[in-house]
Amino acid sequence: MTAYGDEDHDQARHIESEDWDKALEEFCRDAHWAEGALVLTPFQDGESASLLDPVFAITVGEHTEVVSAEWSYLLGRLDGGDDWLALHQQLRAASWWAALDGPQALVRLTVRVTQPVPANVRLLLPAEGHRHILDVPARGGVIGLLPSRNAVWLEESTSVADTLTRMLLVPSAPSVSLRTLLDAHGWR
C-alpha cells in the first residue's frame, strides 16, 4: 500500500500492508466525501479547439457546505452574479492533492482559503471511479468547487463565463502524488 503526498510534501511513501487500516483512517481524518467530479473543457461555439485549459470541478454536496460557517459563506456567494467577481477578487487560496493507493485507492484535495475568510476543507474521491479524468488535476491548473445546487444548472449552460461563475475557483500546482498514482495503475 502506498500513500502519495501530504500537506508538506507531494511525494510517495510506502505503507506496509499491516498499517493499511491506520493509514486509511489517517488519510480520511477531517475529510468529507465529494459527490463527484467532472472535467469542463470550454469551447467557443462551433470551434473544436479549447479556449481555456480544462477545469477539474468537484461537486460539493450540502453536507460539505455546512462543515463550517466560513465554507457556507463562500459557497453561498456562487450565484453567477456580481458577487462572484467580488469574491474572487478577494480570494486567496491554495490547494494540493494527496493519494492513498491500496484496496480502494483514494485521492484527497485539501483547500485552504485565507481571504476573505479563513476556511479549510478536505474532499475525498475514489480514484478508480475518476481515473479517466485525474490526469487533469495532476497537470495542475484551476480546480472548481461546484456546489451540488449549481451542478444541476450546469447541464443547461453553454456559456463559459456562466459556468465558471457557479464555482469557487482555486489554483492547484502540478501533483506528483496524482501522477505517481496514475502511473502505478497505468491510468494515463
UniProtKB/TrEMBL annotation:
Native organism taxonomy: Bacteria, Bacillati, Actinomycetota, Actinomycetes, Kitasatosporales
Recorded superkingdom: Bacteria
Annotated organism of origin: Carbonactinospora thermoautotrophica
Protein name: Uncharacterized protein
